[in-house]
Amino acid sequence: MPELPEMEHYKNMLIDRIKGAVITDVQINRPKSVNKPPEEFIHYVKQQQIIRIDRRAKYLLFYLDNGFILLLHLMLGGWMYWGTNDDKPKRTIQVQLNFRDNHLYFIGLRLGYLHLLTIEEANQVLSNLGPEPLSFNFTLNDFLEALANKGGKLKSALIDQNFISGIGNRYSDEICYQAKLLPMRSIKAINNKEAEMLYKAIQTQLKTAIESGGYLKHPFYKQDVATGSYEKEFRVHDREGATCERCGAKIVLERIASRNTFYCPGCQT
């Protein structure tokens, strides 16, 4: 499932291509991927200009000039492609937004969705999300205060979207590794020095992943070589049995918070 870095990478590429552009047509091949009857959805989206694109947690928000918002959540298996009819992927496309000769294809929206909402409805959907970890408003003191009021295991806290938004299974493993903390550590057992290491690891890990284009393997456009570049940078996630580059121990896999969790038992404490 795309996490904060992947969605931020998408946002940046979309701003370069469609901010200010007019949606000339809409195709809906899977009505369940949208929240309105296709005719109604198309009526409110077609011929609208995209005036702004934002990200909140793992969501993207496309602001239309008629006051509506397209709220995108890719969920498991979802991705996007920008291009022409000639170079579009040979995959089932659930929703398509046309911009004259180029189109934005939404692929793999079996669990994901593109919903047409008012600003008030969108705010309601996003109202329970925790703070953005890369926001300048999310300071170390804010993090320490939030952590002091949190219980359970570290892994569970990092993927809790009500606690901190945007971090999922992959990056939670990498954050724990960078902070040298075991993912099953009790939040209450983490001291202030370790919490500061954790805060810095969240910042560094997410920023680096964004700069490297995240981990998604599907290119966003025909000559895209940036998207997915971070896949080779993972140090523990999905590397069971590999040697830890930091201490030489073998990376192990354990089920934590109902998620496959990878860590190094040698240098994570």
TrEMBL record:
Domain Formamidopyrimidine-DNA glycosylase catalytic stretches: 2-106
One Pfam family it belongs to: zf-FPG_IleRS
Transmembrane segments: 60-82
UniProt keyword terms in alphabetical order: DNA damage, DNA repair, DNA-binding, Glycosidase, Hydrolase, Lyase, Membrane, Metal-binding, Multifunctional enzyme, Transmembrane, Transmembrane helix, Zinc, Zinc-finger
Domain named FPG-type: residues: 235-269
Catalytic activity: 2'-deoxyribonucleotide-(2'-deoxyribose 5'-phosphate)-2'-deoxyribonucleotide-DNA = a 3'-end 2'-deoxyribonucleotide-(2,3-dehydro-2,3-deoxyribose 5'-phosphate)-DNA + a 5'-end 5'-phospho-2'-deoxyribonucleoside-DNA + H(+); Hydrolysis of DNA containing ring-opened 7-methylguanine residues, releasing 2,6-diamino-4-hydroxy-5-(N-methyl)formamidopyrimidine
Entry-linked InterPro entries: DNA_glyclase_Znf_dom_DNA_BS (IPR015887), FPG_cat (IPR012319), FPG_Glyclase (IPR020629), FPG_N (IPR035937), H2TH_FPG (IPR015886), Ribosomal_uS13-like_H2TH (IPR010979), Znf_DNA_glyclase/AP_lyase (IPR000214), Znf_FPG/IleRS (IPR010663)
GO biological process, one term: base-excision repair
Superkingdom assignment: Bacteria
Protein's UniProt keywords contain Ligase: no
Protein family: Belongs to the FPG family.
Subunit structure: Monomer.
Name of protein: Formamidopyrimidine-DNA glycosylase
Species assigned in the record: Heyndrickxia ginsengihumi
